[in-house]
């Protein structure tokens, strides 16, 4: 593959040079100023050629024109930015995790999101096994003019303690209107449909049915066998169409099979029939008008989307307004506000318990027909029929016994979808107002206030008749209940800055900013639930509680950070640029004496094409270098003991024990980074290359909590210790192999490799637990290894051979071993774009190499006899001898009975290491075909521009190693986005039609 890639690159470059030489005399386009202006930290506009650090700008068209609208702009950055790793799960309305230049903090971390110079919240919310998404999904992509990714510490140093993980700067559109100054109107409409990619869903065996062993459990009075109702596995008797069996629907009065024995055969309609083809409708209208000194832009967008699971729906309305107005020739104002109202029903459950996808992937009976379950649910949920006798509509395939119809392990999936659904409503508003006054020609003063507010109200339901499960505040196992969570998050920023620019000589000038910021963050959450179940079925309210509800669980904090900063940018003869920044911060989360800290940076760049005069063949060449320091903030309540209420006993308040010891002398974590790079443009920008190398050291870390011996009175403690190093390279390549009057072919490629290492934690501590998975596997930060180590059971080896336990005939397992690491080897993407007159065609290939994934689905699903691999040939019909050796090194000769309940595959026999897979993938991430109608065709109409496009996303997983699942489809955001495949929704191939009219 490497040789093929290299050969193609040589071919493209050679062809490009040949075409350029052939067309040079015909090409009348003059060489232009390289790269233009980009928006950097604090909303400062800079010439990109002057920057001494790596950044990458994505224009709105490249961001959204070539793909379906995901509803989350973060997902649409996949494969487009060198050094940016995007992980998008398949949860309905779920999170997209962003990671720039590797994990720098033990807890992970997403980059800071900034809109027009003001930070906004991008936290992902996950509670009670529900992924509510990351807050960047509230941003309307119709508002976005461009996104500039500030990758390293030097680029993000002006954000101090928030710059540790990089910064994504979003610039919103200004109103433009028509050339004659009148109002412009843009109407866009899109219809999108998803189709399941069957490579991301199980392929079941169709030779054996329900049971844990190959025999039926009981006989009915008529002498026929009952199916193994209570078994949630398919390791049962072999199918035989001539064998009549009492199956689950034998006991359902609404079923056509009521009191009828049916042939023992594989189901006609398997679990894949449970899913819908999700449809999304997006309509937006933009009104804009603009001229020098005043412009306005108003956008309204409505998105209605159905999920894969029945009874899932999202309705999102977004309003935004931006006004720029010069109050006087020297006083300039800017105002922007966006409001998002989102109502979501039926988000998918994540993780192991109560997740229908876990049932479909791990614990299922291949004889169960989904359509029969659907018909049974709708017939039995009817209010005239529903009662305790039929579990209020929860007629399940997994009944306990022939006499007891209560679910043994699983609800009817349709009952789960229509009765135990979640719902949430989110209100999001981001607003800023800004005034700039030109004191002199070279000095201006800017004052700005921004406010970001999110309200989330989320509800969880457990309908009467459900399988009892842990629920609510008490986490007791109950069969019904209702819970709600209310979250309020706000951030307010007050900024005052002075912009200056002076010419020291005719060829030397200095410019920069001096200013200050006050930031206040407020968080409040309240969680309450019923206790003991619901009194009246179907009424989901806290007042419908059988027992007195516990006191609500409340959490609140307010943080304030005060900052002062200054920058100085020197321009020497347009050939050498030297920049320095300094930020001083004071935070309320640390004690006085430790709560003031500094973040400096220095960068330099040389324009070698000007110094060496290479413009005849290399029209631009820059080399750059920088050094900077950024930080990571301490969270609230890390300094002193704080107590949480545990209720009232005999009229007295009682409180939970303190398990984690705080650290009064806590300090923020800091990262020091060094970066060098170069950028070159050849043959009048027909070939562009950008290369960067960086090295980052983050120390000290904030370890919260680090496990300690309970003998000291705590099970964990907050520490300032530990060090994580990252180093890597990033490459961006742009090619224009063909460029004529009517036809252009562009290639944009990026590739990056990051090497991560946990250098130290704390004296005597070698491992820090990050997450725990089913199957005894954990995600860890281990000294001497990359962040994200997977630890679990491995085989025991003798001379490289797997050892068999002579007592059982199964593999001897060696616990607590390193079995993988979630860090990818490298990531990359390549987009090809073709334009011919009014036609356009583009496609994006997205690649990730490496990054291990533990599949709990395969761990359990093979053992339960669900997958096709478990019924190959005579696998279940003959005794089995597992390959390996006995402890003395002799070949294994111990047989496993084909009829016992110990499968020779899966968790009963094989260690967790067997189910760690390489998470590499190659995807056709985006593709589009568009046509812009010619102006002549629109003559005489009110329309002056019209375009129609057919777009697609995730159209083809060209390569993957993880069976039956998408390597990206992890549990959620943050730490939950690394290395754990369990109960994931299948991936959809999304197709859409977009039309845009401008009036």
From TrEMBL:
Keywords annotated in UniProt: Cell outer membrane, Membrane, Receptor, Signal, TonB box, Transmembrane, Transmembrane beta strand, Transport
Domain of life: Bacteria
Residues in TonB-dependent receptor plug domain copies: 60-167
Location (main, coarse): membrane
TonB-dependent receptor-like beta-barrel domain mapped to chain residues: 479-836
GO MF annotations, alphabetized: siderophore uptake transmembrane transporter activity
Record-given protein name: SusC/RagA family TonB-linked outer membrane protein
Record organism: Chryseobacterium pennipullorum
Organismal lineage: Bacteria, Pseudomonadati, Bacteroidota, Flavobacteriia, Flavobacteriales
């Amino acid at each position: 593959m490497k040789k093929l890639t290299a050969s193609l690159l040589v071919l493209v470059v050679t062809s490009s040079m040949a075409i350029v030489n052939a067309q040079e005399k015909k090409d009348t386009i003059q060489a232009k100023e390289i790269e233009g202006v980009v928006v950097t930290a604090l909303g400062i506009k800079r010439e990109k050629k002057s920057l001494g650090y790596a950044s990458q700008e994505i224009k709105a068209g490249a961001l959204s024109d070539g793909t379906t609208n995901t509803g989350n702009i973060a997902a649409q950055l996949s494969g487009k930015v060198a050094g940016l790793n995007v992980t998008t799960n398949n949860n309905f309305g779920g999170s997209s995790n962003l990671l720039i230049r590797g994990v720098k903090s033990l807890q992970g971390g997403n980059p800071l999101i900034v809109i027009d110079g003001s930070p906004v919240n991008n936290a992902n919310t996950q509670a009670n096994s529900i992924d509510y998404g990351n807050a960047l999904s509230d941003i309307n992509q119709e508002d976005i003019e461009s996104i500039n990714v500030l990758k390293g510490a030097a680029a993000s140093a002006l954000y101090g303690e928030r710059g540790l993980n990089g910064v994504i700067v979003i610039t919103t559109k200004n109103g433009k209107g028509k050339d004659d100054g009148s109002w412009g109107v843009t109407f866009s409409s899109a219809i999108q449909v998803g189709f399941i990619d069957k490579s991301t869903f199980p392929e079941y065996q169709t030779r054996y049915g329900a049971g844990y062993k190959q025999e039926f459990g009981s006989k009915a009075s008529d002498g026929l066998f009952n199916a193994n109702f209570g078994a949630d596995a398919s390791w049962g008797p072999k199918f035989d169409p001539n064998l009549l069996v009492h199956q689950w629907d034998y006991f359902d009065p609404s079923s056509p099979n009521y009191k009828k024995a049916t042939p023992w055969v594989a189901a006609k309609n398997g679990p894949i029939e449970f899913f819908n083809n999700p449809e999304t409708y997006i309509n937006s209208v933009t009104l804009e008008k603009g001229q020098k000194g005043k412009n306005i832009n108003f956008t309204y967008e409505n998105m209605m989307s159905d999920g894969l699971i029945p009874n899932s729906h999202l309705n999102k309305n977004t309003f935004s307004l931006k006004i720029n107005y010069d109050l006087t020739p020297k006083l300039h104002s800017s105002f922007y506000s966006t409001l998002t109202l989102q109502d979501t029903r039926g988000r998918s459950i994540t993780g192991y318990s109560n997740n229908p996808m876990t049932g479909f992937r791990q614990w299922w009976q291949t004889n169960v027909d989904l359509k029969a379950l659907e018909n049974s649910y709708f017939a039995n949920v009817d209010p005239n029929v529903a009662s305790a006798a039929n579990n209020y509509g929860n007629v399940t395939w997994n009944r306990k016994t022939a006499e007891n119809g209560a679910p043994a392990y699983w609800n009817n999936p349709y009952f789960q979808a229509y009765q135990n659904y979640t719902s949430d409503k989110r209100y999001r508003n981001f607003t800023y107002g800004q005034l700039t006054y030109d004191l002199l020609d070279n000095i201006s003063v800017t004052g700005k206030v921004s406010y970001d507010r999110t309200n989330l109200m989320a509800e969880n339901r457990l309908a009467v008749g459900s399988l009892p499960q842990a629920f609510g505040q008490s986490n007791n196992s109950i069969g019904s209940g209702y819970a709600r969570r209310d979250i309020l998050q706000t951030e307010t920023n007050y900024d005052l800055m002075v912009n200056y620019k002076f010419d020291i000589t005719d060829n030397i000038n200095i410019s920069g900013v001096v200013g200050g910021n006050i930031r206040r963050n407020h968080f409040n959450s309240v969680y309450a639930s019923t206790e003991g179940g619901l009194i009246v079925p179907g009424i989901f309210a806290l007042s419908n509680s059988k027992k007195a509800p516990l006191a609500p669980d409340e959490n609140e904090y307010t943080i304030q950070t005060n900052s002062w900063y200054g920058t100085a940018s020197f321009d020497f003869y347009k050939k050498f640029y030297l920049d320095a920044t300094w930020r001083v911060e004071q935070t309320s989360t640390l004690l006085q004496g430790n709560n003031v800290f500094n973040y400096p940076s220095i960068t330099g760049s040389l324009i070698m094409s000007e110094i060496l005069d290479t413009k005849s063949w290399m029209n631009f060449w820059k080399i750059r270098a920088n050094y900077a320091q950024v930080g990571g903030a301490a969270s609230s309540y890390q300094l002193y003991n704080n107590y949480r209420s545990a209720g009232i006993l005999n009229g007295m308040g009682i409180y939970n024990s303190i398990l984690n010891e705080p650290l009064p002398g806590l300090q923020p974590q800091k990262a020091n980074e060094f970066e060098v790079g170069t950028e070159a443009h050849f043959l009048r920008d027909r070939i562009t290359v950008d290369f960067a190398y960086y090295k980052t050291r983050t120390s000290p870390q904030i370890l919260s909590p680090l496990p300690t011996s309970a003998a000291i009175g705590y099970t964990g403690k907050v520490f300032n210790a530990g060090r994580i190093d990252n180093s890597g390279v990033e490459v961006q390549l742009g090619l224009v192999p063909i460029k004529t009057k009517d036809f252009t072919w562009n290639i944009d490629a990026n590739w990056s490799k990051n090497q991560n290492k946990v250098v130290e934690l704390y004296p005597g501590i070698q491992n820090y637990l990050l997450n725990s998975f089913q199957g005894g596997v954990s995600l860890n930060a281990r000294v001497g290894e990359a962040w994200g180590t997977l630890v679990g059971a491995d085989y025991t080896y003798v001379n490289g051979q797997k050892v068999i336990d002579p007592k059982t005939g199964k593999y001897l397992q060696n616990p607590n071993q390193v079995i993988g690491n979630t860090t990818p080897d490298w990531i990359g993407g390549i987009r090809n774009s073709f334009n011919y007159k009014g036609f356009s065609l583009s496609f994006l290939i997205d690649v990730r190499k490496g990054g291990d994934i533990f599949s709990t689905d395969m761990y359990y699903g093979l053992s339960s006899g669900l997958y096709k691999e478990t019924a190959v040939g005579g696998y279940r019909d003959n005794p089995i001898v597992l390959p390996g050796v006995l402890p003395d090194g002799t070949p294994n000769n111990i047989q496993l009975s084909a009829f016992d309940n110990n499968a020779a595959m899966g968790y009963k026999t094989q260690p967790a290491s067997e189910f760690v897979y390489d998470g590499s993938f190659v995807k056709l991430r985006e593709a589009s075909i568009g046509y812009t109608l010619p102006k002549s065709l629109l003559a005489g109409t009110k329309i002056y521009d019209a375009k129609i496009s057919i777009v697609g996303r995730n159209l083809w997983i060209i390569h993957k190693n993880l069976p039956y699942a998408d390597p990206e489809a992890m549990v959620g955001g943050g730490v939950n986005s690394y290395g754990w495949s369990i109960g994931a929704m299948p991936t959809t191939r999304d197709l859409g039609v977009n039309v845009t009219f401008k009036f």
